[in-house]
Each structure stands twice: as structure tokens, then as C-alpha cells.
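thought: fold this chain, then report.
action: predict
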Amino acid sequence: MEERERVEGERIYTIPLRAVKKAPRWKRSKRAIALIREFLIRHTKAEYLILDNALNEKIWERGSQKPPSRVRVRVTRQEEDTVRAELVE
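observation:
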């Protein structure tokens, strides 16, 4: 794997989504999105968060009952209080 130069203001997080199992089965993907938002706002101290469409599709690809157990996300700071999160593949 090639080493990438780190862009200032860019980080990669692996977000655990095990707490989704505590939600009812039909609400698990919705809860996973909420957990991702909570995690990123807590770790980046941003007021606004933009989730990439590919990240949303990854969470919902197996339906509302079976979201993935963890997700890798690349976070870039766009402005002082705005952060953009996209899926790392």
C-alpha cells in the first residue's frame, strides 16, 4: 500500500458500530448513522457535519437491520466549524 501525504486537517477514523445491536432490528441502520454523527462531532469538535453519499449507501446496503460492525471514514475540515466525512475503501 502506498503511503499518502497527510493533508492538513485530514484524519482517518475507524468507527465501531457495535452499540447498534442495542437498537430494535428495524432501526439499526438509522441508529448507525446517528452513532457516526455523534462520534465525529465528539472527536472533531465541529458544529456541522456533512456525510458523503457513499458512506450512507454503505450503511444501508444490507438493509435497515444489518449495518456493518465498523466503518472507516476519512474526515476533512472544510471550514472552521464544518467537517466532511467520506468512506475509505
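thought: worth noting. The longest helix spans residues 28-44.
final: C-alpha cells above.
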